[in-house]
Design goal:
- The complex is a heterodimer of chains A (353) and B (363).
- Chain A is elongated and about 80 Å long.
- In chain A, 25% of the residues lie in helices and 34% in strands.
- In chain A, β7, α6 and β8 (186-191) form a beta-alpha-beta unit.
- Chain A has 353 residues and is α+β, with helices and mostly antiparallel strands.
- In chain A, α3 (92-102) packs parallel to α5 (136-148) and α4 (107-121) crosses α5 (136-148).
- Chain B contains nine helices and 19 strands.
- Chain B folds into two domains: 4-232, Rossmann fold (3-Layer(aba) Sandwich), CATH 3.40.50; 237-353, Nucleic acid-binding proteins (OB fold (Dihydrolipoamide Acetyltransferase, E2P)).
- In chain B, a hairpin with a 2-residue loop joins β15 and β16 (312-317).
- Chain B is elongated.
- The chains are: A alpha+beta (353), B alpha+beta (363).
- Chain A binds chain B through residues 37-38, 165-167, 170, 174, 177-178, 192-195, 198-200, 218-219, 222, 232-238, 275-277, 297, 299-304, 306, 308, 319, 321-323, and chain B through 37-38, 135, 165-167, 170, 174, 177, 192-195, 198-199, 218-219, 222-223, 232-238, 286-289, 305, 307-312, 314, 316, 327, 329-330.
C-alpha cells in the first residue's frame, strides 16, 4: 500500500507561502496529477513527498506511516526529474543500475532487477547505448526504468516530457499511462500542459498560489469547474466568461452578447461561463436563432475551426467541428443550451443551478 | 514591395546539407510559416533570409533586389528569436524606445510609437517596470514589441513562443496575427508547432530534412497533403495511415488491409487511379473524419486507449502497424476493450503510394 496523504500541510519560504494548508489523499495505484501555473506550488509538493523539504505545519503519511521525520532515502519514493536527466557518460544499462550500485546491492540482485524493469519497459535491446544515441521516447523509458529499479512505493515525475516536441509528447503521454497501469504503482505527476493533465491523470489537483482549488477526475473538473479560476485553466480555447445580468425569462450576458433562456439561473450569478464547443453558431439568414454576432476571426485547425465572434460588448470564441464555410465579417446568430451554461458568483465560485 | 523570393537556395555545413535547392515565393504582406521538426532546415532558411548566414548557393530576392552580400543591418528586417534579447537593466519603455532612439527619431514621435505598440501588446501598465523583474511571457512580448516598433517591412520570428507557457501562447497567437494585420508586414514565422502554423499563417511551407515538402494554405496542407510526411505532421493527432493492397469487390474498389479486413469502397476518382496502380498503398484518413458504423460497413478494431481532452475524446484503436486514432465528441461512450466499427468519411480518404509515400491523385 502506498497511498500518500497530506493533512493541512503548509510550507513557507521566507515571505512566500509555497504550499498553503494542503490536504489531499493520493490513492494506491493512482495516477495523480498536480496542475497549475508556474509557482503555484506543484514542485514544492513533490519535494515535500520526497522529503527534500519538511512541512512547517501539518502531516504527511505514506502508506499509512507518518513520514515527517523520515529521511528521503527511507521513504522509498523515486523521482523522475524534468528533462530526463540521464548521465551522458554512462550507457543506458549503467544509468538504470546506478541507484542499486549506489546502495551497494549485491550484483546478482542488480542484474535481476535491471532485467525485470527492462522487460517491463521494453528497453532490453537498447541498454548498451549511451543516452545520446537514444530517441526522446527511449530516453524517457530509460529514465523511468532508473526510477523504478529500486522498486519504490511510489514514483514522482516533474514535467518529465516537457522538452519533447508536440508530436512525441502526444505519443509519450499515452505510453506513460500504459506503463503506470501495467506497473500498478502510485504516480504523482506534475505538468504545465493542460492537455497532458487531462489525457493521463486519474485525478487532477488544481493549484493556485499554493492552495488546492479543486480535486477530481479530469472530466469532472472540465465539466464542473469549482470557480472561474479553474474554468480558465482547462480547455482550449479557454472558457468564455462574461458578465451576466438577470432579465425577463433568463440571463442576458455582457450587455446583449448572448441570451440564455434559463428561468432556473441562480439569482446571485454575476458571471456566466460558456465553453467554446457549447456555443452554437448559425447563419444569421436562417431566421436568427439567437443573438447577432459578427465573425471577427476564423482559425482553421483542420478537424475543428475556432471562430472569434464580436457580439454586444464582448468577444467570444466558439469551437466548431469540421471546416464550416464561415468568413470574417459575416453576421451569424449565436446561442447556447441553458444546460451547458456555468454560473459563477461574486467571488468567482461556481453556483449550483 | 516586400516580397521574398528564394531561388534554388542551398546551404551545406561540411558534408551536411541543411537546406536543399529550396524555391519559395512569399507575397507582400503575407504571413508565411516555415514548419517542420528540428533539423528540417527551417531555421537555416530563416537565418539566410535575415542575413545571419550566407547561402552556399542560390539566391534570395527582396522585391527585385538580390540580397547576396547585403549585411543583416541593411536588410530592413525585424527579427525575434526564441530567446528574447532584452536589455534587462532598462525599463520596458526604454527597451521599446531603443530602436527609434538609435535612428534619431524625435522624442514626441518616440513617445507616440511606444504608446501605440505598448497598447497593442498590452504592455501599457508595465512600461516603467525594469525588464529584469518581468516573467518570461512578458519579456517575449517586449521582444516582439521592440522589433515591431521599427515597423520593418519584413518581420522574421524564430520560434518566438516556444518558451512561454501554454495559456499565454494561445493569447500571443491571436496578438501576433492582429499585429501583422495592422502593420501588413511580410511575416516569416518559424515553428515546429503545427497548431501555431495552422492558426496564424496565410500559407505554410512544410519542411523535412532540408527539403521543402509542400506549400499551401492551412486547409490545403491538412486536406490534401502531398506525401505521408505532411499527412502525419499536420493535424493533432496526425493522419491515420494503414497499409494495404487495392482489391476489387462487388461494392467497388476497396483496399485490402489484411488482418483488419477491407475498407469501405473508395470514391470513383481514387478507384480509377488505384485500378492502374501496382504495389501496396497507404489508406489515409483524418482522425476527425471518422464515424462509428454498424457491422460490415467499416473496420472493426479494438479500443486500446481513450483520452478525453476537454471538448474531444481521442479513441486509440488497434495495435502496431494497424493502430489508428479517432476523435469524437465526448458522448461517444467507447471504453477500453470494446470493439468499435469505424468508417472513414469517404470524401476525406486519401491514398498514398506505400513505397514512395507520395499522394495518389484521384483520376
Amino acid at each position: 500500500m502506498a497511498d500518500i496523504v497530506f493533512r493541512n500541510v503548509t510550507k513557507r519560504y521566507r515571505n512566500t507561502l509555497a504550499v498553503d494548508d494542503a490536504s489531499f489523499t493520493v490513492n494506491d495505484n493512482e495516477f495523480f496529477c498536480f496542475f497549475g501555473p508556474p509557482l503555484s506550488g506543484k514542485s514544492t509538493i513533490l519535494r515535500l513527498v520526497l522529503g527534500l523539504e519538511a512541512p512547517d505545519t501539518g502531516e504527511i503519511l505514506i502508506g499509512g506511516r507518518p513520514v515527517n521525520a523520515v529521511s528521503p532515502a527511507e521513504r522509498n519514493v523515486a523521482m523522475v526529474f524534468q528533462n530526463l536527466a540521464l548521465f551522458p557518460h554512462m550507457s543506458a544499462r549503467e544509468n538504470v543500475r546506478f541507484p542499486l550500485v549506489e546502495r551497494k546491492v549485491a550484483e546478482a540482485q542488480i542484474e535481476k532487477r535491471v532485467a525485470d524493469v527492462a522487460a517491463k519497459l521494453h528497453i532490453g535491446h537498447i541498454l548498451h547505448k549511451p543516452p545520446a544515441q537514444l530517441s526522446g521516447g527511449e530516453r524517457q523509458r530509460v529514465a523511468i526504468a532508473r526510477a523504478l529499479v529500486r522498486d519504490p512505493n511510489a514514483y514522482l515525475m516533474d514535467d518529465p516530457i516537457s522538452a519533447l516536441d508536440a508530436r512525441l509528447r502526444e505519443e509519450t503521454r499515452v505510453e506513460l499511462k500504459r506503463i503506470q497501469r501495467e506497473l500498478g504503482k502510485t504516480l504523482i505527476y506534475v505538468t504545465h500542459d493542460q492537455e497532458e493533465a487531462m489525457s493521463i491523470a486519474d485525478r487532477i489537483a488544481i493549484l493556485e498560489n499554493g492552495k488546492i482549488r479543486q480535486i477530481g477526475a479530469p472530466a469532472e473538473i472540465y465539466d464542473r469547474p469549482a470557480s472561474t479560476y479553474v474554468a480558465r485553466l482547462l480547455g482550449s480555447p479557454v472558457m468564455n466568461i462574461l458578465k451576466s445580468v438577470r432579465g425577463e425569462g433568463g440571463v442576458e450576458a455582457a450587455e446583449g452578447t448572448i441570451r440564455i433562456a434559463d428561468r432556473a439561473a441562480p439569482a446571485d450569478a454575476v458571471e456566466i461561463g460558456l465553453r467554446p464547443e457549447d456555443i452554437k453558431v448559425n447563419p444569421w439568414a436562417d431566421g436568427g436563432q439567437g443573438r447577432p454576432a459578427r465573425v471577427f476571426e476564423v482559425e482553421p485547425l483542420g478537424g475543428y475551426t475556432v471562430v472569434t465572434l464580436a457580439a454586444g460588448q464582448a468577444r467570444l470564441k466558439a469551437l466548431l467541428r469540421g471546416q464550416p464555410n464561415i468568413r470574417p465579417d459575416a453576421m451569424v446568430a449565436i446561442s447556447c443550451e441553458p444546460a451547458r451554461v456555468h454560473y459563477f458568483g461574486q467571488s468567482g465560485g461556481a453556483l449550483a443551478r | 514591395m516586400s516580397t521574398i523570393q528564394l531561388r534554388n537556395l542551398t546551404k551545406t555545413f561540411g558534408d551536411f546539407t541543411a537546406l536543399k535547392t529550396m524555391d519559395l515565393d512569399i507575397a507582400d504582406g503575407e504571413f508565411m510559416a516555415l514548419l517542420g521538426p528540428s533539423g528540417c532546415g527551417k531555421s537555416t532558411t530563416m537565418n539566410m533570409i535575415a542575413g545571419m548566414e550566407e547561402p552556399t548557393s542560390g539566391r534570395i530576392l527582396f522585391g527585385e533586389r538580390d540580397m547576396a552580400g547585403v549585411p543583416m543591418g541593411r536588410r530592413g528586417v525585424g527579427f525575434v528569436f526564441q530567446n528574447y534579447a532584452i536589455f534587462t537593466h532598462m525599463s520596458v519603455r526604454q527597451n521599446l524606445a531603443y530602436g527609434p532612439r538609435m535612428r534619431g527619431a524625435a522624442k514626441a514621435e518616440i513617445d507616440r510609437r511606444v504608446g501605440a505598440i505598448a497598447e497593442l501588446l498590452q504592455l501599457t501598465p508595465l512600461l516603467d517596470r525594469k525588464a529584469d523583474r518581468l516573467s518570461v511571457n512578458i519579456l517575449q512580448r517586449v521582444a516582439i514589441g521592440r522589433s515591431a516598433i521599427m515597423e520593418p517591412a519584413i518581420f522574421l520570428l524564430d520560434e518566438p513562443l516556444s518558451n512561454v507557457d501554454a495559456a499565454f501562447r494561445a493569447v500571443m497567437r491571436t496578438e501576433l496575427k492582429q499585429l501583422q494585420r495592422q502593420f501588413k508586414q511580410t511575416m516569416v514565422y518559424v515553428t515546429h508547432d503545427q497548431l501555431e502554423a495552422m492558426t496564424m499563417a496565410d500559407r505554410i511551407a512544410v519542411m523535412d530534412h532540408g527539403v521543402l515538402q509542400q506549400v499551401g494554405t492551412p486547409l490545403e496542407v491538412y486536406n490534401n497533403p502531398v506525401n505521408v510526411f505532411v499527412a502525419r505532421f499536420i493535424g493533432a493527432p496526425g493522419m491515420n495511415l494503414l497499409k494495404g493492397k487495392p482489391a476489387e469487390s462487388d461494392r467497388g474498389l476497396v483496399v485490402d488491409l489484411g488482418p483488419l479486413g477491407v475498407t469501405p469502397p473508395l470514391p470513383d476518382g481514387l478507384a480509377t487511379t488505384l485500378r492502374g496502380a501496382r504495389g501496396d498503398v497507404l489508406y489515409g484518413f483524418r482522425p476527425e473524419q471518422v464515424a462509428l458504423a454498424q457491422g460490415g460497413r467499416g473496420l472493426a478494431m479494438p479500443v486500446t486507449f481513450v483520452e478525453r481532452i476537454g471538448a474531444r475524446t481521442i479513441v486509440h484503436l488497434g495495435e502496431g502497424g494497424g493502430a489508428v486514432k479517432a476523435v469524437f465528441d465526448n458522448d461517444v461512450g467507447l471504453t477500453i476493450g470494446q470493439t468499435a466499427i469505424v468508417a472513414p468519411d469517404a470524401s476525406s480518404v486519401r491514398v498514398f503510394d506505400a513505397a514512395s509515400g507520395v499522394a495518389m491523385k484521384a483520376g
